[in-house]
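User: Can you recover a sequence for this backbone? Please restate the input before giving your answer.

Assistant: Of course. Working from this structure:
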């Protein structure tokens, strides 16, 4: 081999070693502060989280110069895209099942980043929207099972004294496709009614029984729009969308909690529900563990709203197994998620104007931080921004 060829080989090897060291494929695993952008992160998932995530993204971009895209196509879509993986993080208001976890190409962290409440919205023209009709879990299960079919049913009338209910068929409106709101709603019904639990169960997508009048809509906004425009309908959606819909046609129910109190969903009683439920847990699962058996519905506090939920963010623990991985993107991804759970940054936006998300219990945020600390790139620590 000639001298020129030897030199060329040495140059190529040196360049390769340089790249390997830069990406932490070889050599020391720790690194100093990273470049941190500008980078664009891609997320997707729960529609229930969209107003908050877009608010977060705008504030985070203003502070860091890094962008976050989040179309909010739904929990099921987000989990599918995260599994591909074709996004950097997914968001859903359901914990991953064993089958969903097994489908992932690499272990993921489960990070509750906010919460919400599922509201039961209805349109009864002769009942003022400020009344907040009283409903219970067994009655809701019976409505969706098709065994209570009229609004002036004796069971509904008995817990709403003084309210004149119409002699009209109850028209149920469900979410089509895979939806986190469906998961929380059916989780609640499964806990409230043994027939529902055995025949339908809980899930992002379930086969709803054939009620006398039933319609499915592809989004929370479409569901609420239909309920808002159609008399005698009832459906389920998230607290933010219900409270920001400026209308006098849409009412939403007070739901009986395990203490026997009818509670109207608010930020305050959703936050206490989450706090009380966490306090009652024997232990909080690690971010690396399964959360499938964790349910936030039916907290035991007297004033707790019973259809509360966590909203989970999913991210790969080994970021090099994620979507279009680079060390620089990994740095920004860790920066973004850390910013989201910070009580002085992302968490300060949860109850900003026109946003209705509860504060998370401190032990949950601490658990999140511990999980984020385990994230790595090619086995090495990820530099801080």
């Amino acid at each position: 081999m000639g001298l020129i060829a030897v030199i060329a080989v040495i140059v190529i090897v040196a360049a390769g070693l340089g790249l390997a060291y830069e990406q932490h494929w070889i050599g020391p695993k720790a690194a100093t502060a990273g470049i941190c952008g500008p980078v664009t992160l891609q997320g997707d998932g729960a529609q229930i989280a969209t107003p908050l995530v877009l608010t977060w993204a705008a504030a985070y971009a203003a502070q860091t110069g890094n962008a976050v895209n989040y179309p909010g196509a739904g929990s099921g879509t987000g989990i599918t895209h995260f599994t591909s993986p074709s996004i950097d993080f997914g968001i859903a208001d359901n914990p991953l099942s064993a089958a969903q976890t097994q489908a992932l190409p690499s272990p993921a962290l489960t990070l509750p980043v906010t919460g919400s409440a599922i509201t039961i919205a209805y349109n009864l023209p002769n009942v003022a929207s400020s009344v907040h009709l009283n409903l219970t879990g067994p009655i809701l299960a019976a409505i969706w099972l098709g065994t209570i079919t009229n609004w002036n049913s004796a069971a509904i009338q008995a817990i709403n004294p003084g309210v004149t209910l119409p002699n009209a068929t109850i028209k149920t409106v469900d979410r089509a496709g895979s939806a986190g709101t469906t998961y929380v709603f059916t989780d609640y019904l499964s806990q409230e009614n043994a027939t529902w639990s055995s025949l339908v169960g809980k899930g992002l997508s379930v086969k709803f029984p054939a009620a006398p009048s039933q319609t499915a809509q592809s989004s929370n906004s479409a569901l609420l729009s239909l309920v808002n425009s159609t008399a005698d309908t009832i459906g389920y959606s998230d607290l933010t969308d219900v409270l920001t819909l400026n209308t006098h046609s849409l009412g939403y129910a007070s739901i009986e909690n395990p203490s026997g109190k009818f509670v109207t969903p608010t930020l305050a009683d959703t936050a206490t529900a989450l706090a009380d439920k966490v306090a009652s847990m024997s232990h909080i699962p690690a971010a690396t563990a399964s959360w499938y058996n964790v349910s936030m519905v039916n907290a035991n506090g007297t004033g707790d709203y019973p259809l509360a939920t966590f909203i989970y963010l999913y991210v790969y623990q080994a970021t090099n197994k994620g979507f279009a991985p680079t060390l620089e993107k990994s740095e920004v991804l860790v920066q973004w998620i850390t910013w989201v759970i910070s009580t002085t940054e992302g968490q300060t936006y949860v109850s900003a104007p026109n946003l209705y998300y509860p504060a998370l219990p401190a032990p949950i945020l601490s658990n999140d931080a511990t999980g984020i600390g385990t994230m790595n790139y090619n086995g090495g620590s990820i530099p801080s921004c």
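That completes the design. The CA atoms of residues 152 and 165 lie 5 Å apart.
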